[in-house]
Write a structure and sequence with these properties.
The structure holds 2 protein chains of 2 kinds. By secondary structure, chain A is mainly β. Helix content of chain A is 0%, strand content 51%. Chain A is built from no helices and 12 strands. In chain A, strands 2, 5, 6, 10, 11 and 12 form a 6-stranded mixed sheet that branches. Chain A has a 4-stranded antiparallel sheet with strand order 3-9-8-7, with no helix packed on it. The termini of chain A are far apart. Chain B is mainly beta. Chain B is globular. Classes of the chains: A mainly beta, B mainly beta. Chains A and B meet through strand 5 and strand 6 of A and strand 5 and strand 9 of B.
Chain lengths: 114, 118
């Protein structure tokens, strides 16, 4: 069964500092990987996704993620964090199958300090 | 493209009443829709998977008689919380998967419905 692990429950970074959120997955076939962001009381917003091809994926809001098959990882990065990036971040893994839902990690809460 | 709407965005109801939440794919057809529940400061928990024209498949521990799911068309799925109780208060999020080659890999998420049962 597929699973996603986000080892960091809560991360605090200073505004302007770089950010890396970790995501490890377990999946038997080629995974389709996603990062979502959720602000309090809001729905999910897709930051970026990986299906195939270039393993470094660019997303919205200056985020990028790198797929490393050998490490079963899909870490999210941003070179300079803004206060507005404070939110909950979810990594998810899926498959190209109509009835197979995305499996989410438990999320990482990002706090940004001045 | 690939927009999913939910209605209502928030609802307050009294204990013992039923509440219906609608999920619509606005610009694409979705054979499969998923319903998630999210408790405060937690991740999304899959409740059920619904396919157009057939019965929903519920995850273990989810009461199918309490959470009625209907997927009557390729653009509409509904979740009805029957005889709601305060413990049903939560954030409910629906998601739709496209039918076409270009959008079958993704799930598109609605904005969520905040249910408060008093």
């Amino acid at each position: 069964a597929q699973s996603v692990t986000q080892p960091d429950i809560h991360i605090t970074v200073s505004e302007g500092a770089s950010l890396e959120l970790r995501c490890n997955y377990s999946y038997g076939a080629t995974p389709y990987l996603f990062w979502y962001v959720q602000s309090p009381g809001q729905g999910l917003q897709l930051l970026l996704k990986y299906f195939s091809g270039d393993t470094l994926v660019q997303g919205i809001k200056g985020f990028e993620a790198e797929f490393k098959r050998s490490q079963s990882s899909f870490n999210l990065r941003k070179p300079s964090v803004h206060w507005s990036d404070a939110a909950e971040y979810f990594c998810a893994v899926g498959a190209y199958s109509g009835n197979t839902p995305l499996v989410f990690g438990k999320g990482t809460r990002l706090s940004v300090i001045a | 493209g690939a927009v999913v709407s939910q209605h209502p965005s928030w609802v307050i109801c009294k204990s013992g009443t039923s509440v219906k939440i609608e999920c619509r794919s606005l610009d694409f057809q979705a054979t499969t829709m998923f319903w998630y529940r999210q408790f405060p400061k937690q991740s999304l928990m899959l409740m059920a998977t619904s396919n157009e024209g057939s019965k929903a498949t519920y995850e273990q521990g989810v009461e199918k008689d309490k959470f009625l799911i209907n997927h009557a068309s390729l653009t509409l799925s509904t979740l009805t919380v029957t005889s709601a109780h305060p413990e049903d208060s939560s954030f409910y999020i629906c998601s739709a998967r496209g039918n076409d080659e270009g959008n079958a890999y993704e799930q598109y998420f609605g904005p969520g419905t905040r249910l408060t049962v008093t």
